[in-house]
Amino acid sequence: MKKLLYLLVLLFAVTILQAQNCKVYIPHEKGTKLELTSYDKKGQKESKTTQELINVEEKDGGTHYTVHIKSFDAGDEMVHEGDAKYKCVGNTFYLDMNSFVNQEQMKAYENMDVKVETDEIDIPSKYSVGQSLKDGKINMIISGGPMDMSFSVELKNRKVEAEEDITTKAGTFKCVKISQDVVTKSFVSMTIQSVEWYSEGVGVVKNETYRKGKLMGYSELTAITKY
C-alpha cells in the first residue's frame, strides 16, 4: 500500500513538472495588459494594439489562455476588438493564427458569414538555434456579399534564428527570434518576410516585416500594465 501511494505521489509530481516545462509566450497573470505600437519604415506611428489576459483555464490536458485584443488607428480610434486563444499542452505553446490576419481589413466582412479553418503554429519549450518550426495556415471562406470569396494566410519556412536581448520603451527582454514567410492569398497573392522576438511570460516584444529585403514597418512593445 505504501509503495502504491509512493508511486502515485511520484506520478503526480512528474505530471506537475511536465506542465511547468511549458514556456508561455504571453503574460502569466490575469489582468496584465500589453501595448504594442506599429510604425512605418520611417518610424511614423501607424497603429496601436492592446492585449489583455482575461482568462486562464485548465482543460483538455493543457492550460488555455484567452487574450482580449483591441486595435487602434494612428489617431487612437478603436477599429476592432476580439479575443485570441492560446494554449500550453505538454511542452509546447500554441499560438492563435488569427493574430496574423489584418483585423482592420476583416472589419469589412463583419456582417457576412465567415467560415474559418486553421492549422496551429507553436513554439516548443525546448528548441535550438537553426531549428525549423511547424508551418501554419488560416483559411477563410466569406459569403453573404455580392460574391463569395476566399482568403488565406500561410506561415512558411519558420525558423529559430537566435536568442537575443531586446530593449524597447517597456524594458529589456530576453527573447527567442523567429523568422518566417507570410503568404497572403485573396484576389492577389503577396509574400512578405517577418521576424518576431518572443519573450517568455510576455509575448511579442518586437516584429519587423520585409518585402524583397526592404523594411516595410515594425512593431514594438511600448507598455506593460499589471493589475
Overall CATH class: Mainly Beta
**Range of helix content:** 10-25%
The residue ranges in which pLDDT falls below 50 over 5 or more consecutive positions are 1-19
Which strands sit side by side, in order, in the main sheet? Answer: 6-8-9-10-11-12-13-1-2-3-4-5-7
For the secondary structure, the number of strands is: 13
What class do helices, strands and sheet pairing give? Answer: mainly beta
Give the number of helices: 2
Mean pLDDT metric? 86
Please give the CATH architecture: Beta Barrel
Count of folded domains: 1
The arrangement of helices and strands along the chain is HEEEEEHEEEEEEEE
- The proportion of strand residues reads over 45%
- Tell me about the biggest sheet? 13 strands, antiparallel
How far the N terminus sits from the C terminus, by CA atoms, comes to 47 Å
Global geometry:
globular
Our Rg estimate from Cα atoms comes to: 19 Å
CATH topology value: YmcC-like fold
Q: How are the SSEs placed, and which strands pair?
A:
Elements: H1 2-20, E1 33-40, E2 45-59, E3 62-73, E4 78-89, E5 92-95, H2 103-106, E6 113-119, E7 121-124, E8 136-143, E9 149-168, E10 171-185, E11 189-199, E12 203-211, E13 214-225
Antiparallel strand pairs: 1-2, 1-13, 2-3, 3-4, 4-5, 5-7, 6-8, 8-9, 9-10, 10-11, 11-12, 12-13
